[in-house]
Amino acid sequence: MAAYLLSLQLPPESHIAIYGKNSAHWIMTDLAVWMAGHVTVPLYPTLNAETAAQPTFPDPDRLASIIYTSGSTGQPKGVMHSFRTFMMVAQNIQGQFELSSNERMLSYLPLAHGLERAVLEGTSLYVGCHMFFAGNLDTFIEDLNRASPTVFVSVPRLWTKFQHGINDKIPPRIQKAIFHVPVINKMFRKFILKKLGLELLEGYGMSENLAYSHVNRKGANRLGYVGFPQLGVECRIADEGEVQVNQTLEPHEKLGFIVVISEPWTMENDLLTPTMKIRRQKIEDQYVDKFEPWAKQKCSVVWA
């Protein structure tokens, strides 16, 4: 594939889209585009309609890929990542979790997703572990049993689906009674995970930092906590209690004022996603005509 791309004599660092479901061929294509000296732009599978030459290893500081945010909270934005970023994330994740070539991973999130790209593709290529691919949601349990992953990475949406499955077996009212007392809540959850032989490590990341920001450490996990800053991440707690990962802001990036809206944002009025994320673009569209009048009030808090 890399040789064929080179035969096309495209301009150096051309942006080449990858559109398809998760598979080994997806990753092969990603590598071929890089080896041919170009930049990958992975597209989500749900996106609608709207001669051989010797490849060379790319410069670490060269643009490797443009990863778009999922668009669940607003208009998708493209994030530029270099090969150095991919290598740094893979090396640090491998070192932090002591991953080996014996690990087994199941790829089921779109490879256009920053987390899947960084951890599943990047780390598996770095450590040389086994990668399995899920067919679809209907075959997920079968795929999970087939892969028997030693490392499983997920996002809140899938944990919500797991919760719905638990709700079918244990009524929510009984769960509420069990988990109502904080001490019993933590003990019971830790007991379940221990019985299953699992250690659930929560973390946090964004497309902008290739899903590499905060994560809990093995043996030092706290439920409901996104964890410690990962190696190389600078973080501080502001006087107001806000977590600041990047403390240098341009004037236009600073918060001008806060608006308190009386109208609730819910899934029913389509301002929240089914996973309780705000739909940023829809909210902006709904209030865009009021931005300027609010700013003219020159108040730190605007009540609307």
Produce a short descriptive summary.
The chain is built from ten helices and 13 strands.
Kindly describe this structure:
Helix 3 (83-97) crosses helix 4. It is built from ten helices and 13 strands. The chain folds into two domains: 2-153 and 199-248, Rossmann fold, CATH 3.40.50; 252-304, no CATH class. A three-stranded antiparallel β-sheet has the order 7-8-9, with no helix packed on it. Helix content is 35%, strand content 15%. Strand 5, helix 4 and strand 6 (130-133) form a beta-alpha-beta unit. The chain has 304 residues and is of the alpha/beta class.
Present the secondary structure layout.
Layout: H1 2-7, E1 15-19, H2 24-35, E2 39-43, E3 63-68, E4 78-82, H3 83-97, E5 104-107, H4 114-127, E6 130-133, H5 140-147, H6 156-169, H7 172-179, H8 182-196, E7 203-204, E8 214-215, E9 228-229, E10 236-237, E11 243-244, E12 258-260, H9 280-287, H10 291-296, E13 301-303
Parallel strand pairs: 1-2, 5-6, 12-13
Antiparallel strand pairs: 3-4, 7-8, 8-9, 10-11
